[in-house]
Amino acid sequence: MTSRTIVTAFFALTLTTPLITQERGSWSPASKTAQSITGDITFNDSRLTINFFSLTIAEIRSLKPAELSAAFDTADSSDSTVGTGHLYRLSIPAEKRFLHKNTLCGSDETQWMATYVSGKSAKQMQIAFFSNATPPVFTIEALRDSPNLCGTFSYAR
């Protein structure tokens, strides 16, 4: 095998691995909601850990800048340097309690998670959790009165 073949294989492999790299690692709560419900969270490969509860997550797709703007009120949805975000599928039972006996989606199962990571040196992340088996629609109109949006949480490193 030539060195060129090895380099080509390496780049092909890195392009097909999950895009969870922006989210990967430990995050501390930066909003009152995150402080009172989840506390610290950790992304590791295809898992999310919230308050010692670890679960499998599956990346569904990247979110477009306009979708990030609708979901997280980013400054300029046309600017691709604003940050990155992803939609994940997960399953957190409605009965699962976190800090202070709080749930993520009340009496509904949490089934979707959208992330938004921004900042160059001081990283920040926002997460929106959703109930319902149908994937959320990321437009301002759809999210404005969505009964499936459980809450938005902010974190920092």
Question: In a nutshell, what does this entry contain?
Answer:
By secondary structure, this protein is an alpha+beta fold. It has helices at residues 3-16, 32-37, 65-72, 140-144; strands at residues 25-29, 41-44, 47-50, 53-56, 58-62, 84-92, 110-118, 124-131, 149-156. Helices cover 21% and strands 36% of the residues.
Strand proportion, as a percent range, falls in 35-45%
Shape descriptor? globular
Structural class: alpha+beta
Whole-Å distance between the termini? 41 Å
Spans of at least 5 consecutive residues whose pLDDT stays below 50 are 3-19
Largest sheet: 9 strands, antiparallel
Biggest sheet strand order reads: 4-3-2-1-9-8-7-6-5
Number of strands: 9
Q: Please trace the helix and strand order, writing H or E for each element.
A: HEHEEEEHEEEHE
Q: Helical proportion?
A: 10-25%
Q: How many discrete domains?
A: 1
Average pLDDT, all residues: 86
Written account of the structure:
- This protein is of the alpha+beta class and 157 residues long.
- The chain has one domain (19-156).
- 21% of the residues lie in helices and 36% in strands.
- It has four helices and nine strands.
- Strands 4-3-2-1-9-8-7-6-5 form a nine-stranded antiparallel beta sheet.
- Strand 2 (41-44) and strand 3 (47-50) form a beta hairpin.
- The longest helix has 14 residues, at 3-16.
- The protein is globular.
- The termini are far apart.
- The model is unreliable at 3-19 (pLDDT under 50).
